[in-house]
Design goal:
By secondary structure, this protein is α/β, with parallel strands linked by helices. Among the domains are: 121 residues, Ribonuclease Inhibitor (Leucine-rich repeat, LRR (right-handed beta-alpha superhelix)), CATH 3.80.10; 38 residues; 248 residues, no CATH class. The chain is 22% helix and 11% strand. The protein contains 13 helices and 33 strands. The strands form 7 sheets. It has a 20-stranded mixed sheet, covered by helices on one side. Keywords: Leucine-rich repeat, Repeat, Signal.
Length: 867
């Protein structure tokens, strides 16, 4: 139990560590787990510096096809690294300490680099720090491999595999070139332009690859210094010869496998290798096999003589090969095989004689053969006893021959697979396969059968599983009962044919290419066999199925159509909403732009209150808007061509006038201290001089029973450009400055005679009317202001909460009334005298102002001390 728990804990820990390693993998590289090893692939990135792998325990690292010129020094931080691939880089030199710190490195791939000289890679010390077992230096421009100089000898106590294939080595000189590799087992020199071999010595070398090395004749003792040599591959050396002119053979007492394929040898030249077990001699020019061709190779087990020009095989050629198991003599020109050729090969199990010119399949004595291939041999006839010499034969391939018939007495108690496809067989009998009790697969496709067989032809084949009958010119006689029985035998479980569509009619012409079951369906399964009741029920069931299917289809179509309509409506709704949103957004933007363009001047929308207005200096002229003063001033400057000094002078006058107004008001405040003089000033101001246009209004205390006005209020002057362009005497008046409880105040003017007759007890009536939509004044919706209409020589009756009945307030000046044109020639002193003649009595607040202060508060004029 404890061991299971510990195993589980270790497994979880290992999984967590590996997952963490994958998460820390550099983005440009690919990391994968193989068991407990972490493999990192950074190949093909065109990098010249090592990626950040500091936190990974890398076991296999691929840096191939990059721009490295040396082994990165950062690899010394990976002592657990076992495999390093640096092929396809630009390494030409390596220091003796390039592999220091890599104490577990076993595989180093430096193929496809620029190493040309052994001295450049320090072979004496390069491999010492690491326990390398495999070094790949293939496809480097190395030209020599010798031991003439000690500093060119590769030294490693652990190296087992050295690959120097496809370099440019032209000679191997010296018998000490492998002395620094005491454990070397596999050496590959394939693809080098070697002419000969000499002095190759190693006590551990077992495999020597010399494929395609342009070798010619070899020294007789070339392999004698390699006592452990087992396998030599000398294939594709098309000038190679292992026998001298004197008939002496290259020898090796340890060699067990040799590959001499495609070497253009004219004979068998392996007599010098008595321990051979495998000899590959395919693709040569061997023309005959004599009795002594293999007399010194009695241990041969596998012999490949395919793709030669063998036309004669001696009956005793294989007599001494008692261990022979596999023989391949395909693609030769053998006309006949003697029955006793393989008589003494008691272990021979496989014989391949395909692609020869054997015209007749005669009896062959091969006691152990279980597979015989004689396809494509132009065999015309088969002897009745052809299989008697192969008692354990299980597979026979006679396909693609010229066989027209199968002999009657051909038999085999062991044959399981018989391939007679693509022959010219026209018929079989009921006894043709009766003597093959173990037969399970028969391939008769591609022959010339026309009439289907009787089912009882195969009744004795109890283990029959498959019959191949395709690609035959079958004549479909659907009314033939035996035809239907044979088809049923093939297709009924267990089926004997994999695909019944391969059974196609060739005749009659109207059924050409039609499968059997389709061509004969109406005859084999006629509807007349059904009774009346069965027909009725069949029709009813079919009708119900068709009706149900139609209903389902209609419902599905309707549902689909409704779904599409719903989708379309929803899409249209979304489009309409989006268009509506766009219109609203467009209108809002247009209104905002129009509001910005038509926005009134703040000085127009919020004019000063009455107290502020009477403290302001009088305008020199009357204007349609407050901005027109500056506009006319600029226009006068342009027309008169004034300079900057005159502009500054105007500004000074304006500021001086405002200051003078404050001083005058202060002086007038001091004069009001005397009560008697204030009454005399009021009567004196009742008859103003002609030079001053005064307006008199009477403030009344109660407005609850005011009569309708006798004179309508003056109309509001137009604000368009045409109005602004009229005479300078036109003025811009706010008609609804005074507003009592959201109502409009209309003033009925009084003449001096009416005022005298009425006396101080009479008051002028003010008519109150509700606000209507016709009030188009831009100030109609503002809070209550001071004056509604202002005309000279009139009295305004306004109810107050602080004054007693009959008490009146006389407003001496009208700052909104038309004035005389300003005489610019007047001096500031004259202006001061003109302004000082106007006196205003203390005025209690009659209406609400903008800041909604209580009615009845008095406004005190500033005194000199306040200023």
């Amino acid at each position: 139990m404890n061991s299971v728990v510990w195993s589980f804990i270790l497994g979880i820990t290992f999984y967590v560590v590996n997952v963490e390693s994958l998460l820390l993998c550099p983005a440009e590289c690919h990391c994968a787990l193989h068991g407990i090893n972490l493999n990192v692939d950074c190949s093909g990135l065109a990098i010249s510096e090592l990626p950040d792998l500091a936190d990974l325990e890398v076991s296999w690292l691929d840096l191939s096809d990059n721009e490295f010129t040396e082994i990165p020094a950062g690899l010394q931080d990976f002592p657990q690294l076992e495999s390093l691939d640096m092929s396809g880089n630009k390494i030409s030199q390596l220091s003796g300490i390039s592999l220091s710190g890599l104490h577990n490195l076993k595989t180093l791939n430096l193929a496809r680099n620029n190493i040309s000289n052994w001295v450049d890679i320090n072979p004496n010390t390069l491999l010492q720090p690491s326990p390398l077992t495999m070094l790949n230096l293939a496809k480097n421009p190395i030209t020599t491999f010798s031991s003439i100089e000690d500093n060119t000898i590769l030294v490693s106590k652990t190296l087992k595999t050295l690959d120097l294939s496809d370099c440019k080595i032209v000679r191997m000189a010296g018998n000490q070139m492998l002395r620094g590799l005491p454990k070397l087992e596999h050496l590959s020199m394939a693809g080098n332009p070697l002419r000969t071999l000499s002095g190759v010595a190693s006590d551990s070398l077992t495999t020597f690859n010399l494929v395609n090395c342009r070798l010619g004749s070899l020294p007789l003792g070339v392999f004698s210094t390699l006592p452990a040599l087992v396998h030599v591959n000398l294939a594709r050396n098309n000038r190679l010869s292992l026998v001298t002119k004197n008939g002496e053979y290259v020898t090796s007492d340890s060699l067990k496998r040799i590959d001499l394929s495609y070497c253009n040898m004219g004979g068998v030249e392996i007599a010098g290798f008595p321990q051979l077990t495998t000899a590959v001699l395919r693709g040569n020019m061997i023309r005959q096999l004599t009795k002594d061709s293999f007399e010194n190779n009695i241990y041969l087990e596998n012999l490949d003589l395919s793709f030669n020009a063998i036309s004669y095989v001696n009956v005793g050629t294989f007599k001494d090969l008692g261990n022979l198991k596999h023989l391949d003599m395909s693609f030769n020109m053998i006309p006949r095989v003697d029955r006793d050729t393989f008589k003494h090969n008691n272990l021979l199990t496989t014989i391949n004689l395909s692609r020869n010119y054997i015209g007749r399949f005669n009896r062959i004595q091969a006691k152990a053969v279980n597979s015989l291939n004689m396809s494509w041999c132009e065999i015309v006839a088969i002897d009745a006893d052809a299989l008697q010499g192969c008692p354990v034969l299980t597979e026979l391939d006679l396909s693609n021959n010229l066989i027209t018939s199968i002999p009657e007495n051909l038999n085999s108690n062991s044959l399981q697979t018989l391939d007679l496809s693509m022959c010219r067989i026209t018929s079989i009998r009921n006894t043709t396969f009766s003597d093959f009790p173990e037969l399970s697969r028969i391939n008769l496709s591609g022959n010339r059968f026309t009439t289907p067989f009787r089912a009882d032809y195969f009744s004795e084949l109890l283990y029959l599983q498959e019959i191949g009958l395709g690609d035959n010119p079958w004549r479909c006689e659907c009314k033939n009962t035996e035809f239907f029985k044979f088809f049923s035998f093939l297709v009924e479980p267990p089926s004997k044919i994999w695909d019944k569509s391969h059974l196609r009619c060739n005749s009659p012409d109207d059924l050409y290419g039609v499968p059997w079951d389709v061509a004969c369906f109406h005859i084999w399964y006629p509807s007349s066999n059904l009774g009346t009741a069965e027909k009725v029920w069949t029709i009813i069931m079919v009708s119900m199925i068709v009706f149900a299917g139609s209903v389902c289809i209609i419902m599905s179509v309707r549902k689909c159509v409704e779904g599409r309509k719903l989708t379309a409506r929803e899409r249209e709704r979304e489009e309409f909403l989006e268009q509506h949103r766009d219109i609203i957004r467009h209108n809002r933007l247009a209104m905002e732009q129009e509001a910005q363009l038509n926005a009134p001047d703040p000085r127009e929308t919020r004019p000063p209150c009455y107290e502020d207005a009477i403290l302001m200096p009088r305008l020199d002229g009357s204007f349609a808007s407050l901005n027109e003063l500056n506009m006319r001033r600029e226009k006068r400057r342009k027309l008169a061509g004034k300079d900057d000094n005159e502009d500054e002078g105007d500004g000074t006058i304006t500021r001086r006038n405002r200051s003078r107004s404050v001083e005058v008001l202060s002086m007038r405040e001091s004069r009001t201290e005397d009560g008697q003089s204030r009454r005399s000033r009021r009567q004196r101001n009742a008859d103003p001089p002609e030079s001053l246009e005064l307006a008199r209004y009477t403030l009344i205390e109660n407005s609850s029973a005011l009569p309708a006005p006798t004179v309508p209020p003056p109309p509001t002057p137009p604000r368009n450009s045409a109005a602004r362009g009229q005479d300078n005497e036109l003025h811009y008046h706010s008609t609804e400055v005074i507003n009592l409880h959201l109502t409009t105040v209309e003033i009925e003017p009084r003449t001096p005679d009416e005022e005298t007759n009425a006396g101080m007890a009479e008051i002028e009536q003010i008519t109150m009317r509700p606000r209507t939509d016709e009030d188009t004044s831009p100030y109609a919706k503002r809070q209550q202001k001071h004056m509604s209409t202002f005309k000279g020589d009139e009295e305004l009756a306004i109810s107050t909460s602080s004054r007693s009945s009959g008490e009146r307030i006389h407003v001496i000046d009208d700052y909104f009334a038309p004035t005389e044109k300003v005489d610019k020639g007047r001096s500031s002193d004259e202006d001061f005298e003109s302004f000082s003649t106007r006196e205003i009595d203390e005025i209690p607040r009659a209406v609400q102002s903008d800041d909604k202060r209580n009615v009845g508060q008095k406004v005190r004029r500033p005194t000199e001390s306040d200023l």
